[in-house]
Amino acid sequence: MANNNLSLRSLLENEKLNGINFLDWFRNLRIVLKQERKEYVIEEPVPDEPAANAPSADKDKFKKYMDDMLDVSCLMLATMSPELQKQHEDMNVYDMIQNLKEIYEGQARQESMNEINKTLPQLLGMLRTAESDLKKNRSKSILMEPLKRRIMAKRNVDLRAGNGARVATLAIGTDISLIDLI
Length: 182
Prior knowledge:
A hairpin with a 2-residue loop joins strand 3 and strand 4 (175-181). The longest helix is centred in the middle third of the chain and has 23 residues, at 56-78. This protein is globular. By secondary structure, it is α+β, with helices and mostly antiparallel strands. Helix content is 56%, strand content 12%. The chain folds into 2 domains: 1-106, no CATH class; 115-182, no CATH class. The chain has a 4-stranded antiparallel β-sheet with strand order 1-4-3-2. This is Zinc finger, CCHC-type.
């Protein structure tokens, strides 16, 4: 099992997080942590420390979380650029991930929007994800490079997100090409 851990960890060690590769780095981090059964520490905030008179099972669970968090924290910091290490060295793992997601949220949206040819279900899934992200973050802006604006003609599809933002699309066969976010 140790050899598997080392070979999977090499995914992260070969390409450190440098700011422009967040999506790839985060995907590789999740793969490594899933294999090590420590993915939960990036998904759950740090639990409160159990009281002194708490059952030993609660204390053991808390100790395991703290040990796993330390392992994951060291792994994450070791696979970041020095600048990012300095910014995140005093944070717990969950807060590190939340901060990185906030910093690189625009990059994530831009990269997914760059994959322009989508089927209708894929586009709908992208819209639902963006809408839920907007609700979670209560953000009003979406960062993306402007694309060519086209006037909608008959037989084109006009989709709207839950917040009323209009997404104009052009139907081409069974695929849909994302034209513009208005």
